[in-house]
Design goal:
Mean pLDDT: 90
Helix content: 10-25%
Distance between the termini: 97 Å
Structural class: alpha+beta
CATH topology of the largest domain: Deoxyribonuclease I, Chain A
CATH architecture of the largest domain: 4-Layer Sandwich
Radius of gyration: 25 Å
Organism: Aeromicrobium duanguangcaii
InterPro entries: Endo/exonu/phosph_ase_sf, FN3_dom, FN3_sf, Ig-like_fold
Strand order of the largest sheet: 11-12-10-9-24-21-19
Oligomer: single chain
CATH superfamily of the largest domain: Endonuclease/exonuclease/phosphatase
Protein name: Fibronectin type III domain-containing protein
Strand content: 25-35%
Shape: globular
Number of domains: 2
Keywords: Carbohydrate metabolism, Glycosidase, Hydrolase, Polysaccharide degradation, Signal
CATH class of the largest domain: Alpha Beta
Length: 398
Amino acid sequence: MHMRPILLSALALVTLFAGLSTAPAHAAPRVGLVQAVGVTATSVTLTWPKYRGAKTYRVQRAANYAFTKGVRTVKAKRTRATVRGLRPGVEYCFKVRAYNRKGRHVATSARTCKPTAAISVPSRGATVSTLTYNICSKACDSSKEAWWAGMKPWAQRRPVVTRTVLGSGADVIALQESSGWRTVAADLRPTYTAVPDFGHYQTSSLLFRTSRFDQVMVTETTPRAATIELGNGRRATWSELRDQRTGKRTIFVSAHLSPDKSAAANRRRKAETLSLMRQVDAANTNRSRVVYLGDFNSNKSRGRAQDTPARVMGGAGYLDAYDQARTLSRPNYNSGTKGELKPVKSYTWGDHVDKVWIRKGDGIGVLSWANINPRRGAKYAGPVGSDHCPIRVVLRLS
């Protein structure tokens, strides 16, 4: 009797079944993108897409990303829930679990994390709409990444950007990478006035609604405004504006810091942020409140140690308007587009490098934050205006 072939066959079967038993399991079904669309000092409102076959949901919240601290559960029958009883200015993480009609757990979402508001909204005051938008005008025309993504030349993107800016309804507009934009500035007149030194390569430009603001003047012909050097070839533009409705003054700043994720780039951003704040503070002889806008190349996914702009701004009392906004639209759509029509979705923090910073105690609250990149269905409308999305933040200034 030939035992060797039989033994080899048996061994092969054992090996096969052992391999099957140790093969990685399929990933658990996922509830779709969970987004924090509303925030107060003590609550966060979440929405998510309906999961097929789900009859009820449970929202889990925790005081840390690992879900090992302060875990609580809120039941929901619909695809929206408000989690209450939270502490002001504390970041919480959330997961949504879906259950079928038999009460069996069938899917869980990815985590999303959001702090409650630390800055209150004044009950009275003037509402000011701001827009920050890296338009990547000539820079994207020479970018290989933009070319591979299918971005159109600036001549074709320019009218898209112009329509978006005009349609935003913004009172103050901060633009970055705005080289060659003088013609569009002319197109926007008389609705908007451009601050001097507008249009340099890599300059962060600033415009304001002519019917809403006046520039504060040093002399009859010289406004309190400047384009300043931050180092590393980076610039920022600031202007002190007077609200025609209230007579109050505010300095608005448009800035663009160095890109990339390397340690060297992180050090550059720290130096640039410190330079920015020092120069604006020195120029602010009227001690007006300041609102910073722009592409800060800063986001939470890099970790606190690597997010030097947020550390410097936070050390001076400034907080990200995204974290303070009472309502949010498309909060987890990354403010970068990669030049593509398909939105980049960031599940945990949103990953917005385009910022508006306000300082606690300045009497400025955030009513809303919105990604207003034109959209057609589930995608952005083509051609995209830039490799960044326009971010509109509505403020209330007491």
